[in-house]
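Appendix C reproduces, verbatim, an entry submitted by the partner laboratory led by Prof. M.T., so that reviewers can inspect both the input and the predicted structure.
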Amino acid sequence: MANTFPAALTAEFVADEAITTLGPILSAIGAFTYNVGVDRISPGSTVQVPVVTAGATAGTNPSSYETNADSTKIAREVTVDQHSLSFHVTQAELNNGHRLRSLIGKNLQVIGNACRDAIFAPITAANYGAAILDSTAADFGASDLKTIWAAGKDFPTKNLIIDGAYFAKLLPTDANSLAPGAGGAYGFDSIAMNNRWTGAEAKTIGFFGAADSLAIASGEPVMDDEIQDLLSMYEAIELPGGLVAYVSSWTSLATRKRFMNISVMLGSAVGDATAGRIISDGTV
């Protein structure tokens, strides 16, 4: 495939910095997820995340301190996939002043969307039950937060992510009101905006959960040392929300085309299914 660069952008007129058009923001993910760090992992690998579901039995005035001491764990299997994209600038485009760095911002948005979709894939009614609130943006208001909060009254942490059209209804109207993102606003640990729900249950516009309601595994991709030595650049960069992407760059000796790759090793699965709830859009 060829790049689409207008002829007007020649070496004489190309600015040093490019403007990147708007795209979804990944930062809402970091508000509620539990990140299980794994180093040097290959695509398709599985990570077992332990979930403690039951503790020992409590007693009163025990005659022995060694009885009823058994606890229960279950294993949540997280499959880690490599979400990757590569982009390029040809020698002719380089001669006309186009630079690889001008394409980084937009391609980070693209990889961010792929990561978001993977993280939200477990958010289904099969995993977390039916929606606790079904409301259109027009009908939604701050009073609905009481319904949401009550549905997770036992959650150890209360983190809400919600679509921007609904988030807008929570914006402060004067200096005495807390902004939704402020810790403690409306009784939540955090309220964050998210405008992309691809991968989640159909009609989802929000998710309310404790920090460990999702189990997320991420890490550095496995790479042969000799291959890494041939790269002109290889470094980790943090995406909004805390995910780490690994960026590499190289030049084809045959075509002198400059390439860059962005890769994120990422998997997501249900963590504590009892600690997450779905909010839907009010449509039938």
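The chain has one domain: 27-53+71-280. Additional entries are available on request from the coordinating office.
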